[in-house]
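Quick start: read one record
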Amino acid sequence: MPNRLLRIAPVIIATIILAACAGPSAGTAPQSFAPAARSMTTSRMAPDAKQQQSLLYVSSVLTNDVYVYSYPKGTLEGTLTGFSTPYGLCSDGAGNVWIVNDAVNEIVEYAHGGSTPIATLSDPNEYPEGCSVDPTTGNLAVTNFYSSSGSGSVAIYSKASGSPTLYADPDITNFRFCGYDDKGNLWADGANSSSQFAFAELPSGKSSLTTIPVQQTFEWPGGVQYDGKYVAVGDTDTGKVYRIQGKTGKVMQTVALGDATELNQFWIVLGSKGKSNMSQSRLLGPLESGSAVNLYPYPSAKFSKKIIQVSEPFGATVSSI
C-alpha cells in the first residue's frame, strides 16, 4: 500500500546509508461537502472560520496541505499550506489543532479557524505519524513511526510545550497512532519487527509502556481513539474498526466499514449528549487510495456517505469551540 511504502522506504534507505558509512461534538451528519481546492502557496481561511462552532480538518499526503471545512454544514473554509508530509491530526478541548509534519520532524499547532501557526514543537530525529491531547493534563502525545537511529517511540510533551520525553516498547518497532481516554490513559498501536500488530498502554501517571495482547488479526495498524466506552482501533487494510477494552485487550465489537479502503487516521464525533448518545455519533474516514472522506454512523456503520473528494486524504480531526 502506498503509505506503508512511503514509511518503510526511508528506513531501508537509512539502513543502506549507515551500512555504507560503517564499512466535541456535533450530532448531525454533513449534507454535501465541497471538493478540496488545489494546493496553494499561502494558507488562507475564510473570515468567518473562527466563528464556526465546529471545523473539520483533513490532511492530504499528495498535496501536502490541510483542508478545513465547516462541520456539519460542509463549506470549504480554507487551506493550510507549507507542510512536508502532514499525517495525523488531533485537537484539544479549546479547539486548537495539532498537525504532524513528518518529513521535517515537527508538530504544528493552529488555533481554531486560524491560518498561521501559534506553536511549533520539534521532534528531533523522529518521524511522527499520529497525535493525541490528554484531556486531564493538556499533555500532547505523538507517535513516532521510526527514528533516525532505529525504532519508533511515543513522545510526550508536558502541557504541549518544550522538549518531549520518549517512551519505547521492545514489542513495538514502528508506532502509528495513539489516543487518550477520559482518565488520561494513553493507548497506542503499531507493528513489531515482523510487521505484526502490537498494542500498548501508557497508564496515567506511569513512566513506561505496557504491551497488551489483542486476540485479533490486523493486516496493518490504523487509527486509535477513545470512543467514550472503548478504545477504537482501526485496521488500515480491511477497513474495520475494533472496539477494544483497553486494559484487557478484549475485542468487544467489530465495526465493519465495508467500502473503506486504506483507512489510516479516522475521527469519531460523539453525539450531542456525548458517550450516552452513541446513536448520533459519526465516524469520519479518510480513504487514502479512494481519494475521499466517508461518513459512517458509529458504531452501527449501517451505511456510508461520501462527503469530501480530496486527493489521498490521510488524517482527520474535528475542532469545536
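Residues 125 and 148 are 5 Å apart (CA to CA).
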